[in-house]
Amino acid sequence: MLTIKNLHAQVEDTPILKGLNLEIGPGEVHAIMGPNGSGKSTLASVLAGREDYEVTAGSVDFDGTDLLDLDASDRAREGLFLAFQYPVEIPGVSNLNFMKAAINAKREHQGLEAISAKDFLALVKEKSALVELSGRLRDRSVNEGFSGGEKKRNEIFQMAMLEPKFAVLDETDSGLDIDALRIVSEGVNAMRDAGRSFLVITHYQRLLDHIVPDHVHVLSDGQIVKSGPKELALELEAKGYDWVKEEIA
Amino acid sequence: MSAANEKAHAFVAGLAASAGLAPLAEAGRQAMTDLPVPTRKSERWKYSPLTPMLVTPVRTAPAHEGWPKDVPTNPIPGLDAYRIVLLNGQVVAEACDLPVADGVVCIPLLQAMAEGRIGAGDEDWSAYHTREWVGAVHAAHAQDGLFLSLESGVVLDRPVLVHHHTTGENVASCPRHRLQVGANAEAEVVLWSSAPEGASGMVNAVLEGKVGAGARLGVDKVQHEHGAVFHLAHEHVTQDKDSTFRIHTVTVQGHWVRNELNALQHGSGSHTIMHGAYLPKGQEHVDNHTTMDHTVPHCTSSELYKGILYDRSTGVFNGKVFVREDAQLTNAYQQNANIVADAGASINAKPELEIYADDVKCSHGCTVGQFDEEALFYLKSRGIADRAARALMVQAFIGDVLEGFGQDEVAQEVEGLLADRHGWM
Ligand SMILES: Nc1ncnc2c1ncn2[C@@H]1O[C@H](COP(=O)(O)OP(=O)(O)O)[C@@H](O)[C@H]1O
Ligand SMILES: [Mg+2]
Prior knowledge:
By secondary structure, chain A is of the alpha/beta class. Helices cover 39% and strands 29% of the residues of chain A.
C-alpha cells in the first residue's frame, strides 16, 4: 500500500526527517509513537503534500504511484487522507458544501457523475451517526466554533465520507475525553477492512487500547529507531522514550 | 486654460445639453467652469484619476431606435418586477412596465418634469454639481430616468427594476433618478447596469432619494458592464425619522468604476445599511467612496464592504463616517475587508471617522490580506483542486454581502455571473 524509503525532508533549511523507512501493507494498522518534536506531524504533512516541507531525498510509493509527484488534492483523490492534529477553522464555508465538493472532486477523478442531493444527504446521515456528530455541528461552517473534541470527530466524519484507501491520523486522541476517544476509535475501527490501511500517530498509548495496531514504530529525531508488535506501545508507556534512546545509543 | 482643463473641455464637447431639466443644466454648466477638473492632486481622486477617461471624447447618443433585440429588458431570471429601461441614458418607453396605482407615481423623470411634479427650485437634492466637476458634468447633461413617488403608507407590491444599458462606442450617458418615499411607505429598487463587449464611453449616473418618516427604501445595485465603460455613480439619500435605507452595491464587472454613495440621517431613529462587494480582474478599477452622515440622535448604521482583487486590478475604498455634535447615542459600524489575490493587484483602503458627539458607539475595521494558506491546504487535502478551493473561500468571504440583497433572484443571478466569470462551480 505505502512504501517510504530513505525519506529526508526539511523546513526552510532545517532537516527534520532524516532517512525514514516504513512499509505498510493493505489492511494494516501501524502506529507511530515518539516524543514531541521528533517529526511525527512533519511526516504526516509530507505525505499529505504540504508545500512548506521540502523533500530532499527518498521516495514514497502509494499503490504503484509516486506520491511525491502529486499535489495535495491529487493525493486525496488517489485515496490518501490526513486527519489533522490541528484542524483548521474556515468561516463561511459550510461543512456540507465542503464535503460535497470533496466527494465530487473524487468522483470526477474516478470518472463518475456528481453525487445526487439525495444520495449525499443519506451518506451524511449515515457517516455522521458513526461519530455522533450532531446535525447542528455538521451543518455549520468548517470547524468554526467547534471544541477540540468536536474538531477531531469532524475529521473522522470527513474520513468516513471520503472512504480513503490510506489514512494518517495525527494525534487524533489529543484533547479527547474518554467518551470522545471511544467514539472516535469506534469510528476508525468500523472502517478497518482488508483494503484500507492506517497510520496512527500518537503520543500516548491509551489510543492504542482502542485502535489496536498491527505494528508499532518509534520515531526519534526524524528516523524510525525501533519497531515491534503492539506490546511495544505498553513497554514505551511504562519505560518512557528515554529507554529507547538508551537502548539504541 | 490648463492642459488638463482643455482635455476635459474636449472630452465633454460632444455632450448634448440637458433637455428637460433646464434650471439644473444651467447651474451645471456654470459649475463646470467654476470647479476644478479633479487630478491626482485632489485627495478625493488621488487613486482614481480621471485622466484615462478624458483621453477619448464622448458624445450623447442620437435618439434611440428601440430596445436592442438581443438584450433582455429584465436581465434577472425569475425576478417579478416593474421595469424602466434606459438605453444610453434615454428611456425606451415601449419596453417599460410601470405600475399605475393610487398613491404611486412611477414614470420617467422627464415626464415628471413636464407634468410639473418637480417644483421650480426643487430639481436638485444632492448639490452634487456644486461639489464635484463630474457632478457638474452630469447636471449640465442630465438625461432621463426613474421618478418614483410614493404617498404616505403606500407599500409597492413589487420592486422596480431600473435597467441601464450602454451600447456603442464613446457614448456618454447621464441617467438621473429620483425616489421619494412618503411616510411609512416602502419601496424596493433594483439598479442594474449592463453593456456588451465593445461598448465604451462614460456613464455618469445620479440617484437622489428621500426616505420619509417610518419609511423604507431598499436598493439592490449591480454593475455588470463589458467593454470599456467609465462608470461614475452618485447616490444621495436623506432619511427622516425612524426610516430605513438599505443599499447593496456589487460590481460584478466594470472597466473603471467610481461609486460615490452618501446617506444623510436627518431624523432620529433612522437606520442605514450600506453593503458592497467588488471583485475586479484584469486591469479593472473599482472605487467605492461612501459617506455616512449621522446628524441627529439615536441612529444606527451598518457598513460592510468586501473586495477581492485579482490580476493587476486596482481598488479603492474610502468610508467616511460623520457623527455630528447632536448625534448622541449613535451606533455606527463600518467594516472593509480585502483579499489581494494576486501580487499585481492592489487596494487603497481608508476608513475616515469624524466623531463630534461623546456618547456614541462606533466600531470600524479595515483589513487587507491574502488567502489563508492553512485553510487552502485543508481544503486541498480533501481532494479539492486549488482553483476550486480558492473559489469556495471567495464565496465564503463575500457571502455575507450577497445574502443581504433585497431580492433573492438578484443575489442568485449575481452569484451565477460571478461563478461564470471566476470559474467557480
Ligand atoms: N513549519 C515549520 N517551521 C519550522 N519548524 C518546524 C515546522 N514544522 C515542524 N518544525 C520543527 O520540526 C520538528 C518536528 O516537528 P513535528 O513534526 O511537529 O513534531 P511532532 O509532531 O513529532 O511533535 C520540531 O523541532 C519543530 O519545531
Ligand atoms: Mg505533532
